[in-house]
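Supplementary Text 2. Reproducibility record for the structural model of the 122-residue chain.

All settings were left at their defaults, and a single model was retained for analysis rather than an ensemble. We include the record here because the model underlies the residue-level annotations in Supplementary Table 4.
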Amino acid sequence: MTQQIKLELVNEYGKPSLLLTLDGRTAALAAEELDELIEVLGVVRADLTPAPEQTVSKAERYAVETNTEWHVHQNPLFDGVLLFLRHSGFGWTGFGLPSEQMDLFMEATTPPSEWKDNGTRN
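Retained model, structure tokens:
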């Protein structure tokens, strides 16, 4: 049985929150509670099928950040780097890039100005 979820942005006492209604019950979620819900939903979604697409679709709409904050950390227990990207709505998300993926990432992000005359990367 499918239940309808109603989401509404409200300003209760001047502080914005998300009003979530499900099965006739309502809860107001502040930013901290919404962060916790988003984190739990991400963990649960990772175990559901079908899995998210493996490729980026040009027909799909994505949440895209510009001027993204990022940090790279090295860990002696991991052969690669930990890349953290910050989204204004989702917060910090970490990705472990093994050294072979780092090489591919570096190649993919080489600016065209550094390409050879034949259009290939140096």
